[in-house]
Amino acid sequence: MQVLSVASEVYPLIKTGGLADVAGALPEALAAHGVTMRTLLPAYPAVLAKLRYGEEPREVHVFETLFGNPARLLAVTHEGLDLLLLDAPALFDRPGGPYLDTGGRDHPDNFRRFAGLSLAAALIAEGCLKNWRPDLVHVHDWQAALTPVYLRFGRRPQTPVVLTIHNIAFQGQFSADTFQELALPPAAFHMDWVEYYGQVGFLKGGMRAADAITTVSPSYAEEILTPEFGMGLEGLLAARQERLVGIVNGIDTNVWNPAKDPMIAAHYDVSRLEVRKANRKALLERFKLVDTEGPLFSVVSRLTWQKGMDLLAAVIPDIIDQGGMLAVLGSGDAELEALLEEAAALYPGRIGLVKGYDEPLSHQLQAGADSILIPSRFEPCGLTQLYGLRYGCVPIVARTGGLADTIIDANEAAMNAAAATGFQFSPIGEDPLRQALRRAVKLFKEPHLWARLQAQGMKTDVSWNASAGRYAALYSTLCAKG
């Protein structure tokens, strides 16, 4: 089966979040299930700069015009990924990141940029490439969500499309006057397609047009059917519920492997947990923390309300009072950054903060910290807790979405059954988080029980094996219907 994957970011070429990890890991995982996947990605300058000697892209198609500008498709293989790069300089050759300019603001023409990505994907699905046409298209998030809309309004037999929603809070909504630039017929600006309360809704249109909608965990698939989590799209999802399925994410266990991770100070596995002490020592030095011999908690996150970082800031005194330390890697809302900076200044040697994102440091935090805190108010899947399981960094998570699906709470029954892998708390608030921290600190003081909890997490299968099989089965069903 030949599948075209369409994503706005793909690890290891460009990454702002978990979407990149998923798009980068799925192709290899699916290969074991008889699926060959090519990935369409914008040719951002950062992507082209990461291609190595011997990876010179070759031109495989030229678009006469893509929204009035020249564009072409380049084919290249990079670290096992079969890539099609959309080289459209007017859309993607600019400073800044994939979505934001150098000042941290949305690129004003994001609607045009990612409509261009979607239109290119649709043209590939319709057969614009010589000698290759996909049996199915798998698109990710709003940036690629217009692909099935273009196909619906195309003239050729339609290729099945799977749309994966990684976070329904990000919907790609733009003013109505942008519609005239999208190369869609007037009929597409209708409540049944891309029109959304008088605006253009990329994700909404994709959800309506796709043959199947997936989310990144079973619990999140249930949650987004409710007003609390559906972000205004719960009605459409309810109407298409028979096409909605939750498939939990996995991680690339080759990239995330403490036994051979080149980014960490000392390698270890479940039989050599004592070696983690060397990584903990290196982490304390990196964050300039003084070892209290209490638990070293960590956070790797966007510093936002959704991620519960205000709750984290509120419980920092509790971490200190219980003899703990905290190392934070992240950036986000200015107010939350300021709160954590104040805490680091108030508790020198106990709280460390590194602003921004640093891939090697994120690995070092998982390898050296005792526990990772994920107090998200909602979390479609989350990968951070899976990395924590893999590295023996015990997750403390809010009971929501994929966090609830992937972490087994260390209650008495689960501990006695040797099934526990971390700590859950609910409802999501300051006091329940405090209680979870107290439970964790209490268990940390019993090293044999803590080691059992770490070992059980490290034995958990967090790979893509099972989930890739579910995707392959879904693809097969859709292609058979076609």
From TrEMBL:
InterPro entries: Glyco_trans_1, GS/SS, Starch_synth_cat_dom
Reaction equation(s) it catalyzes: [(1->4)-alpha-D-glucosyl](n) + ADP-alpha-D-glucose = [(1->4)-alpha-D-glucosyl](n+1) + ADP + H(+)
UniProt keyword Glycosyltransferase present: yes
Keyword match Transferase: yes
GO molecular function: alpha-1,4-glucan glucosyltransferase (ADP-glucose donor) activity; alpha-1,4-glucan glucosyltransferase (UDP-glucose donor) activity
Enzyme Commission (EC) number: 2.4.1.21
Occurrences of domain Glycosyl transferase family (ranges): 289-411
Pathways involved: Glycan biosynthesis; glycogen biosynthesis
One annotated GO biological process: glycogen biosynthetic process
Source superkingdom: Bacteria
Key words, A-Z: Glycogen biosynthesis, Glycosyltransferase, Transferase
One GO CC term on file: cytosol
Enzyme class: transferase
Residues that, per the record, bind ADP-alpha-D-glucose: 15
Domain named Starch synthase catalytic: residues: 2-238
Pfam families linked to this entry: Glyco_transf_5, Glycos_transf_1
Family to which this protein belongs: Belongs to the glycosyltransferase 1 family. Bacterial/plant glycogen synthase subfamily.
Function summary: Synthesizes alpha-1,4-glucan chains using ADP-glucose.
Protein name, as recorded: Glycogen synthase
Organism, as annotated: Xaviernesmea oryzae
